[in-house]
Amino acid sequence: MHHSHGKHSKSKVSYLESPERSKEFSPEQLLNMIPLKETDSILDFGAGTGYFSIPVAKRTTGDVYALDIDPAMLEIIKEKALKEQLTNIVPIQGSMEELSSPDGTIDMIIASLVLHEIQPLEPLLQQMRNVLKKEGHLICLEIEPKGSADKGPRINLEGMERKMKEAGFQITEKYFPSESLYMLVAQKTD
Q1: Closest by alpha carbon to 184, among 124, 144, 140?
Q2: Peptide bond before residue 123 is cis, with ω within 30 degrees of 0
Q3: Residue 48's closest CA among 105, 2, 112, 97?
Q4: Distance CA 185, CA 175 (A)
Q5: Residue 31, pLDDT above cutoff 80
Q6: Residue range 87-98, pLDDT digits in tens
Q7: Given the DSSP bridges, would you call strands 64-68 and 89-93 parallel, antiparallel or unpaired?
Q8: Domain residues of the chain, as ranges?
Q9: Of 18, 106, 144, 152, most Cβ neighbours within 10 A?
Q10: Side by side, which strands form the sheet with 181-188?
Q11: What is the pTM of this model?
Q12: 3-class secondary structure, 107
């Protein structure tokens, strides 16, 4: 059992790192679309191999919290950060609860291809809203489910938008970076 898990996460890593993935939608493209400021502190929720953590850390002097449940992913991020000489990446293993940031301290949360895995989503969105600063942003990148062929619990754009609004976010931008992806930029409202 343990053995097969290792194989699984390898294929996951190769997908997460694949050139096809960045050709479809590069992290730089995403960062150009979002209201990222040079001093922002960022939470990369479900950071994986640092696909966003690393490029974000180059654009901000604030801390970039790379949060992932898988310690192997965080090791990859640490290696990349060393190689790129980035000192503002803070790897955190675990879930939102492990984030020891006090409420209202984070400028932006990036959640890429991860929110659909969280059931129920509402408590998490609430926690995200709490750690964000007064006008902080939540960036959500997800795959739009196409018919019933899609495996797994995907959330379509409409459903995600509704959940965000219910959690106290206002959608400020919508993007469709590729035909299968949607991106929502949501701002915390009072």
Answers
A1: 140
A2: no
A3: 112
A4: 8
A5: yes
A6: 999 999 998 887
A7: parallel
A8: 24-188
A9: 106
A10: 89-93, 64-68, 42-45, 106-112, 132-143, 181-188, 169-178
A11: 0.85
A12: strand
d(CA 92, CA 119): 21
Q: Which residue's entry shows tokens 């675990």?
A: 94
Instruction: Give the sign of the dihedral formed by CA 55, CA 74, CA 46, CA 101.
Output: negative
The pairing of strands 64-68 and 181-188 is: unpaired
pLDDT, average across residues 21-26: 62
Evaluate whether 184 touches 174 at the Cβ level (below 8 Å): yes
Tokens of 122: 């509402």
**Is the CATH code 3.50.50.60 the one for domain 24-188?**
no
Residue 64 contacts residue 42 (beta carbons within 8 Å): yes
Average pLDDT, the chain: 86
Closest C-alpha to 138, from 168, 109, 165: 109
What is the maximal distance between C-alpha atoms in the chain?
48
- Alpha-carbon dihedral sign for residues 71, 32, 11, 159: positive
Give the residue-averaged pLDDT of 107-128: 93
* Beta strands 106-112 and 169-178, pairing class: unpaired
Between CA 120 and CA 105 the distance in angstroms is: 24
| Cα separation, 51 vs 176, whole angstroms | 19
End-to-end CA distance of the chain: 47
User: What does the pLDDT read at residue 119?
Assistant: 86
In whole angstroms, what is the distance from residue 171 CA to residue 13 CA?
Answer: 31
